[in-house]
Amino acid sequence: MDFQIIALDIDGTLTDDRKKISSLTLETLIEAEKKGIRLVLASARPAPGLFSIRDQLKMEQFGGILMSYNGGRITDCEGNTFYEISMDLATTRRILRFLEELPVTVIVDDGKMFYVTDKNGYKVEYECRNNQMQCTEVDNLADWLSFSPIKLLLAVDPMKIYEVQEQIRNFLPEDLTVVRTAAFYLEIFSRRINKGQGLCDICRILKIDVRNSIAFGDSENDIPMLKAAGIGIAMKNAEMDVKKASDMCTLSNNEDGIPYALSELNVI
């Protein structure tokens, strides 16, 4: 098959557990780009969290695409935005007040800065470091918020995450959803947003048949993308539901699973 796009989740997929891209994975993906295959970084991260990886993969040189916020914002590597889907401001404030009663650390961003009520809150420092973004502390997020965010990020104790997710799901209006993006993260965003729709939209914009795409992922939020792609590939470390939704499985993110799968498919 003439594959033209490789869509890559980042955490737990493209990067290993140290948040690094292995030399073999880097070399393999750059070789794919040289063959004319375009890379798509498909992540729940804000756009700044993709920039370092974009540069390592030389994506600007080869016309790569950045899908941030689970597909809530899609841009090219020069910063030109194809589209962006935000939450309603009044609704977001109402959700923030509801979340004050739950055991979660809420992290809001405007694409440049994170905003929290406690800089020492659960996973705040981790998120800032992971995305290379600074953090500002505010007294109350619901009172302070004056813009429409694309998503709300919630850091949750993994032992409580399923229970908390269900409580939030029962509260949300029908046009919003809450999804697990890591063992300790929940994200609230528009139901119109998912990585699968994002991949389809990118293919439409680039005039590429989505059947000529490969997607790699490991978490619940990757499932729509794995289903939409011509071939959806789950990492060995993926959740069981992700593996069931994929066309094939590869080695883990710590074992160069991406180069292994691309070799098996004779892409590289």
From TrEMBL:
The keyword Hydrolase applies. Pfam families: Hydrolase_3 (PF08282). One of its GO terms (cellular component) is cytosol. This is Phosphatase YidA. Keywords: Hydrolase. It comes from the Bacteria. It is an enzyme of class 3 (hydrolase). One of its GO terms (molecular function) is phosphatase activity. The keyword Hydrolase applies. Its EC number is 3.1.3.-. It comes from Blautia obeum. Gene3D superfamilies: 3.30.1240.10, HAD superfamily/HAD-like.
